[in-house]
Amino acid sequence: MRSLHVEGTGWLYRLSPRVKLISLALFSIALFMTRDPFLLAVGLLVGGGVLWQAHLGLKETLSRLRPVMLTITVIALFSFVFASPLEATISLFRLTALTLLATAITASVSISQFMDEITLAIRPLEKLGLAKAADIGLAVGLVIRFVPEVVHRYELLQDAHRARGIRAKLHTILVPLIIMTLKDADAIADAIDARGFRGQTSSPDILRGD
Amino acid sequence: MKTRDLVLIALFSAIIIALGLLPPIPVAIIPVPITAQSLGVMLAGVVLGAKRGTLAVLLTILIAAIGLPVLSGGRGGLSIFNTPTTGYLIGWIFAAFVTGYLSEKLVNRQQSGLVQGVGFFIASVTGGVVVLYAFGVPYLGYAAGTGLEKAFLGSLAFIPGDVLKAVLAALAGRAVLAGYPLLPHRA
Questions:
Q1: What does the pLDDT look like over A192-206, one tens digit per residue?
Q2: Phi/psi of residue A4, each to 5°?
Q3: Are B73 and B23 in contact (CB under 8 A)?
Q4: A135, A150, A202, best to mutate vs chain B, most B CBs in 10 Å
Q5: pTM of model > 0.90
Q6: Whether ipTM exceeds 0.95
Q7: Extents of the domains making up chain A
Q8: Distance (Å, rounded) from C-alpha A208 to C-alpha B4?
Q9: Which residues are CB-neighbours of B81 under 8 A, at least 6 positions away?
Q10: How far apart are CA A191 and CA A198, in angstroms?
Q11: Å from A8 to nearest chain B CA?
Q12: How far does chain A reach from its first CA to its final CA, in angstroms?
């Protein structure tokens, strides 16, 4: 799985990730506070300008914007037909401006920078004993590691269907896929505990023997 | 939290993401093709229960937000939070919780297969359709500026597909409960 982050050296990339994320939040609040199409158009220019500074190249930029812009366009058309052209313009400008800036920020903040910010953000929760920052990092790592595995299993199950002359259907694949995948949980959990990744000295599970 | 629960949450998040990579499936009786990813949300509640199911969905959204293109159609990055359909994404969290909570309350291993299936179906429809739309529709109406009523009419086309997913989730939930029960072992 390829991250949406790209290596870069421009000012956008050198800026602290915290500043970028807070600016994005403020930008979105500002956009939702105004209904003036002129001000929203200025926001559109700001978003576009920052995204241009991410230097992604035209082709890459368009391919990233396509999925989100598709929804935004459909909704704008919907609101053009059922509400008013003004409403349609407001929602089109507002959402497009946000999408442009969010795409730029996403490209310029790496996964590890994001993880650092998340760790910082949940520190108050950690102090209360409600969450462990290291666990979140571990879980994200596990997911990235296991997505290709699950996709591979899905393909194997499709082949197994084909070999038996059955058309592969979602509901006949789903159950074996879930059971096969979740059955690994014990082995993976043991491997993690054996390496002491979660910093336990002795697992109560082992002592109780279950 | 036990390491095993952490791993189960991560593995289920991987399943939700993998379901999003499948191409949308056209179903003959329904006008819109369905994506399997929101099925994954119902399954998370049905298979893992309220707490772990909700955490699996939260983990998936977190991974999308930090810039991995894991939502169906290759969406990812912070822009997922500002489309008019963001309400549905936030609704996923509550959908998984309600589905999981009702599954824990309605289904146990002593029941017959039929009762289990019906219980899982009620849990999936309540969480994955009623609760999900309660978040998605008002936000859509607000963000697109069309108002609640029109947003609801526009969403109607997707309801048959989502009910169908609830049926699939119920069948799968029953089979997983028989083959590899995880629901009773609460986190």
A1: 888 887 875 444 555
A2: -85, -5
A3: no
A4: A150
A5: no
A6: no
A7: 11-110, 124-200
A8: 15
A9: A102, B65, B89
A10: 11
A11: 16
A12: 35
